[in-house]
Design a protein that fits this description.
Layout: H1 2-32, H2 41-89, E1 95-98, E2 101-103, E3 112-116, E4 119-123
Antiparallel strand pairs: 1-2, 3-4
Helix pairs in contact: 1-2
Length: 124
């Protein structure tokens, strides 16, 4: 759960960077008018480009970190599910409760495809 909260926080910060940096710069650029009619295009670009690229890079890093948090949350959740399930379905470690003789739990049976030319059938 903490990884999900971290991802949400990172996404919210990225949203604030978008609305606080990139969108105002885009609006400012739009107000400058058609590039073919701007007298000092290089000046307009200099005022816009560095700030916008920095904001966009920060957003990309925040989104990448948020994605990494979500991916790690899946790993943690999967590990938790495996640990949770091992107590109810048996263990791969042999048991010695049968008069000292080791017994190994049976593996679950999964149907497997058998190939017959162009046709595929399932055998149990």
């Amino acid at each position: 759960m903490p990884w999900l909260i971290a991802a949400l926080a990172l996404y919210l910060i990225a949203f604030m960077v978008t609305t606080g940096v990139n969108v105002p710069l885009n609006d400012q650029l739009a107000k400058a008018g058609d590039p073919q009619h701007i007298d000092h295009l290089a000046t307009v670009r200099d005022q816009f480009e560095n700030k916008w690229v920095i904001g966009n890079t920060v957003r990309a890093l925040l989104h990448t970190a948020a994605f990494a948090c979500l991916a790690w949350a899946l790993v943690v959740f999967g590990a938790h599910r495996l640990n949770e399930g091992s107590g109810t379905t048996g263990s791969a470690v042999p048991s010695t409760h049968n008069n000292g003789a080791a017994t190994i739990p049976a593996a679950p049976h999964h149907p497997r495809p058998v190939h017959h030319g162009a046709h595929h059938t399932l055998h149990r």
